[in-house]
Amino acid sequence: MAALPELLGDIEKLVTCESPSSDLAAVAASADVVARVGARLLGAAPERIVREGRTHLRWRFGTGPSRVLLLGHHDTVWPLGSLDTHPYTVEGGVLRGPGCFDMKAGVVMALHAVAALTDRAGVTILVTGDEELGSPSSRALIEDEAAGCAAALVLEASADGGALKTERKGTSIYRVRAHGRAAHAGLEPERGVNATVELAHRILAVAGFADAGYGTTVTPTLLSAGTSVNTVPASGEFAVDVRVRTVAEQERVDKEMHAIRSAVDGAAVEVLGGPNRPPLEAASSQVLFGRAQAIAARLGLPPLTRAAVGGASDGNFTAGAGVPTLDGLGAVGGGAHADSEHVLVDELPGRTALLSALVADLLTGAS
Question: Where does the record place the Peptidase M20 dimerisation domain (predicted)?
């Protein structure tokens, strides 16, 4: 397994090449860096897959079908120039820099873990360039690569304390539009059909679709309506963020969303959107987590813990495709997307060794 200085050197290469998802040139430059690091470690250049201008990288090993998919992304939420205010540093056992935790350290861990295998046949590494945007160009690629695999291992950063992510909520995104009729608010408001009032009814109704007992959240968010303070609003809309733990709940909320009707005479309501990512349910990760626990004990690592989280990742897509999925195998640290983003340096070798041993275990089919 790679020594810590080699891991840190490669993480520095990735972190110091800024890669905001929205900047196609920056993402392409970052892909070049990942490709060079991977080619040096693995002895093979990746396939470059460019979709909608976004650069994704794929390494496939062996001539047979893939059995284990290692999944990560090299884009970040940090804009160009972030290194000026958040420079790459390693001090007091803490590594900092934009995107280090989410998830450039995880990408490096994946490359080193596979490089340590004596037999890589059956392994695919996929590093995408648009995860932070919701994977619009890479979703189909991810699902295609996962098809037929025995496992998908996602190198997103760990949960608090290094916990693996064994459940992720699925997400749905909606826009609810109200159509009314404009009128002068002072002279003849009765001739208007007030879209704002309609939206008020719909917001309260939609919020009621949540179910705390099932962990389902339905949150009205961005709201806009009307054109001026003295005009009855003729139109408006609000956005809705839905998070669910099960497919059944995602389907229930979707059905209720598309069944809503207007409450104001003369108004019309339109619902756009639907499920965006399926949930990663506990059943998808249960067996893989057990294997990882056993391997951690064999390697003398601290006992593994698990966590259910509300945020989504590309692991939601692999789980939704029916592939056993274990997430949060990347760096231990915290502060994703925040000024406090950091990685705990001492955890890197052990986590990388765990990943490598887990891949080897899955390739041999050991129980």
Answer: 166-263
- Averaged pLDDT for residues 162-174: 97
Residue range 98-123: mean pLDDT, rounded? 98
* Assigned CATH class of 4-168+279-364: alpha beta
Quick check: 256 pLDDT over 60? Answer: yes
Percent of the chain with pLDDT over 70: 99
Q: Which of 136, 129, 75 is nearest to 102 (CA)?
A: 75
pLDDT of 145 strictly over 60? yes
- Which residues, 6 or more positions from 218, have their beta carbon under 8 angstroms from its beta carbon? 206, 207, 208, 209, 210, 240, 241, 242, 253
Sequence ranges of the domains in the chain: 4-168+279-364, 170-277
For residue 266, which of 194, 169, 172 has the smallest C-alpha distance? 194
Q: Does residue 366 surpass a pLDDT of 70? A: no
Domain 170-277: which CATH number of 3.40.710.10, 3.30.70.360, 3.40.190.10, 3.90.226.10: 3.30.70.360
> Cα 16 to the chain's mean position, in Å?
22
Alpha-carbon span 283 to 132, nearest angstrom? 26
| pLDDT higher than threshold 60 for residue 175 | yes
State residue 367's pLDDT score.
42
The residues carrying an active-site annotation are: 75, 131
What is the rounded distance in angstroms from the CA atom of residue 272 to the CA atom of residue 210? Answer: 18
Q: Which distant-in-sequence residues (6+ apart) come within 8 Å of 86 by Cβ? A: 78, 96, 97, 98, 339, 341
Whether 195 contacts 203, CB under 8 Å: no
In degrees, rounded to 5, the angle at the alpha carbon of residue 137 between the alpha carbons of residues 136 and 142 is: 95
Kindly state the DSSP code that residue 161 receives in the 8-state scheme.
G
Query: Is residue 144 a contact partner of residue 130, using CB atoms and an 8 Å limit?
Result: no
> Residue 103, preceding bond cis, omega within 30 degrees?
yes
Residue 233 host element (H or E)? none
Cα distances (Å, whole numbers) of residue 45 to 32, 66, 365: 10, 18, 28
Q: CB-hemisphere CA count at 13 Å for 157?
A: 24
